[in-house]
Amino acid sequence: MSQLKLSKETWSSQSIFILAGIGSAVGLGNLWKFPYITGEYGGSAFLLVYLFCVLLVGLPLLIAEITLGRAGQANPVQGMANLARENKASKLWSLLGLNGVLAAGFILSFYSVIAGWSGAYFVSSLQGNFISQDVATIQGDFSALLSSPWQLLFWHTAFSLLAVWIVSRGVKNGLEKAINILMPALFAILLILLGYVVASRGFEESVTFLFQPDFSKLTAEAVLVAMGHAFFTLSLGLGVMMVYGSYLNQQSSIVKASIWIAVADTAIALLAGVIIFSIVFGNNLDAASGPGLLFQTLPVAFSEMWGGWFFGTLFFGLVVLAALSSAISLIEPAVSWFEQNWGIQRNKAAWGFGFVTWVLGIGTVLSFNTWSDIYLFSDKTFFDSLDFLTANIMLPAGGFFMAIFVGWVLSKEKLKGELGLQERTLNQYRVTLRWIVPVLVMIVFIYNLI
Ligand code: PFF
CA nearest 193: which of 87, 91, 100, 313? Predict the structure, then answer.
């Protein structure tokens, strides 16, 4: 009988696993994307739909993905192969893992460029560049950054090096150590910023904007965006949570850990929203300013407000830390696959994979300047195409098939063994994975393509 390829690394404890999961989930999605899409789609009504997606699709899938990881006991490709064999299903299921490894590489390639913007803004803020600047100069600075391939490349490179270096050191020496530093720092900075805005002028308006539902603004597009974002923000569909789950010991509770991760991710997005919109409204700025919200709007506020230098620097530092703990999770599926299946040392696997995604990232760097007129899919630049391909095709496809596998293929006994749920709850959970999740994901998927 052929030998099962099993993962040997493990997390030191359930809490470090939860922290690592939160680290993966909380990133640019929470601090950059969530506030600007919530701003664009009208605030509270969008938020409600998003919460609904997290609860009905995100959480069940998160549990499913971690289950696949721990039950498969290997990287996403091998883990799916192990599970398919055990359950007498087609070998082709390992393609699901491959889809994840590839999608994670694509996402990392542009994630690192955008994280690089935050790096640039952190340093710029630290140098006091925003202090008492006028709006035109600040907005011009962002355009200048985007139009400079060398600057973008520099920050993309710096960020990639840092992320790859952490992963190259292994689960305990690299990932765990980084998570133990990054996450407490992230929580502390968030609380300091919250403390600042609670006493500020825009706080009330921001709370009303986020929490007083106004359904007149809700559109079909907003629903689709909310669903797509639920996937992205919880790092679902790519095997990231699977590989993290494969390092989880048998005594830990997958359901509890998943609830913690989903709740923390949502809470941090909400906190970030309250903080950002308080600053925006307190300074009479526009909530619906799109992707530039973080980089063009907030610095205007930091330039005028009391303590702007300190809070601005802290804020962009927060974005970099959050992005870093997500980026390392994007590297891990590939590295564990290279290590376990190809016998390549972790160190080499991490640097090799990092090099490939770095090169791919150059396409994103150029799509903001030299290649801004070159379109791949219809009207989409290189960056937009990768974003579209991953967010609208690869992630939902990954999530869809994971739900199908856990709902229909994985034996009920195995699922019960992994989750330890009561019979009734287990059945309800299986119905959710068999019907609700796939149907909802399919609707969104088809609508997106049309
Ligand atoms: N969840 C991260 C964020 O919200 O920024 C992004 C991400 C990380 C997506 C890891 C997917 C992933 F596998």
Answer: 313
SS percent in the chain: helix, strand, coil, step 5: 80, 0, 20
Asked, for residue 278, whether it belongs to a domain, the answer is: yes
Ligand 1 mean position, distance from CA 27 (Å): 6
**pTM (global) more than 0.90:** yes
Distance, in Å, from the CA atom of 445 to the CA atom of 439, rounded to the nearest integer, reads: 10
On whether residue 8 sits in a domain, the answer given is no
| C-alpha 310 chain-centroid distance | 27
Q: Which of 110, 232, 241 to mutate to test the pocket of ligand 1 (most atoms within 8 A of CB)?
A: 232
Domain assignment present for residue 6? The answer is no
Domain count, the chain: 1
439 located within any domain: yes
Across the 450 residues of the chain, what is the mean pLDDT of every consecutive 10-residue run?
60 96 96 90 90 96 98 96 97 97 97 97 95 89 96 98 96 93 91 90 93 83 88 95 96 97 97 92 85 87 87 93 96 96 96 98 97 89 93 92 98 97 97 97 85
CATH number at residue 345: 1.20.1740.10
Whole domain around residue 265: which residue ranges? 14-449
Atom of ligand 1 nearest to the CA of 234: 1
